[in-house]
Amino acid sequence: MIELYFTPTPNGHKISIMLEEIGAVYRLIKMDMLKGDHLTAQYRRINPNARLPAIVDHDPIGSGLPLPVFESGAILLYLAEKSGQLLPVDPRRRTQAQQWLMWQMASFGPMQGQAHHFIRYAPEGQTYPVERYRNETIRLLHVLNGRLSDEPYLAGEYSIADIATWPWARAVRAIGLALDEYPAVSRWFETIGNRPAVIAGTDVKNPANLSSARPILTDEQWSNLFGQNMLSAPLR
Ligand SMILES: N[C@@H](CCC(=O)N[C@@H](CS)C(=O)NCC(=O)O)C(=O)O
């Protein structure tokens, strides 16, 4: 059995989709970031970086003690290796899947994540970071559209690279961008969105908030999301 420490964000949905795709037996543990569930000493033993998602596999690859895994890209690679699914066998395709997974983890997710932060959460009026990260997200959507104009999926066949990227493509609407302007992305987005495992991993069990409205947070909620000064505290 796998425990999934989860919040319904793009990074969380990568893993709920993957677990549904491979037919894993899992228990979803809902974490409330606004309450600081991810900052507790108990959770930081699973993910010392105090971010979501993370998993604990109680029947791990290679047997032995329960295995915690954090970083959504590492979790996808782990589950692909364990299940023997969704990472191409062909070495060229496998490298492409890993390459696009790293692209999502290093660029499409983090740059867009900063765009969400400055557009929806940070004090208003900061035009430089808003433009910087929105433009970078637009540039990355063009990169994605180029790749998907040449191939049906990022590694030619459906893989963990698509699972990592799809929830972030879905999230662009919350920062005022539309996929219609990227025809190859739109085609790919719709095809993947119709997969039963993707529907089960997202809208049915764990709906995301894709609204572009600015959330109103209390000081405590803000501190739990962005303050993070307790990270310097020792584990108890
Ligand atoms: N690179 C990490 C990013 C994880 C991440 O930033 N998760 C967000 C939720 S999507 C989070 O935990 N935010 C809480 C915070 O920043 O305190 C991954 O892909 O797992």
Give the overall form: globular
- Coarse structural class: alpha+beta
Tell me about the biggest sheet? 4 strands, mixed
* Spans of at least 5 consecutive residues with low confidence: none
Number of domains: 2
What does the average pLDDT come to?
A: 93
What is the H-and-E element order? Answer: EHEHEEHHHHHHH
Give the C-level CATH assignment of the largest domain: Alpha Beta
Say what the CATH topology of the largest domain is: Glutaredoxin
Strands of the widest sheet, in order across it, are: 2-1-3-4
Q: What is the overall number of helices?
A: 9
Q: Can you say what the CATH homologous superfamily of the largest domain is?
A: Glutaredoxin
Helix fraction bin: 40-55%
Give the topology:
Blueprint (H helix, E strand, L loop, with lengths): L1 E5 L3 H12 L4 E5 L10 H6 L7 E4 L9 E4 L1 H12 L7 H31 L5 H24 L9 H12 L11 H11 L2 H9 L14 H9 L9
Parallel strand pairs: 1-2
Antiparallel strand pairs: 1-3, 3-4
The chain binds glutathione.
The site of glutathione has 11 residues, from loops.
Structure in words:
- The protein has 236 residues and is of the alpha+beta class.
- The chain has 2 domains: 2-85 and 209-232, Glutaredoxin, CATH 3.40.30.10; 91-195, Glutathione S-transferase Yfyf (Class Pi), Chain A, domain 2 (Up-down Bundle), CATH 1.20.1050.
- The chain is built from 9 helices and 4 strands; from the N terminus they run βαβαββααααααα.
- It has a 4-stranded mixed β-sheet with strand order 2-1-3-4, with helices on one face.
- Helix 1 crosses helix 8 (196-204).
- The longest helix has 31 residues, at 91-121.
- The protein starts with a strand and ends in a 9-residue tail after the last helix.
- The model has no long low-confidence stretch (mean pLDDT 93).
- The site of glutathione has 11 residues, from loops.
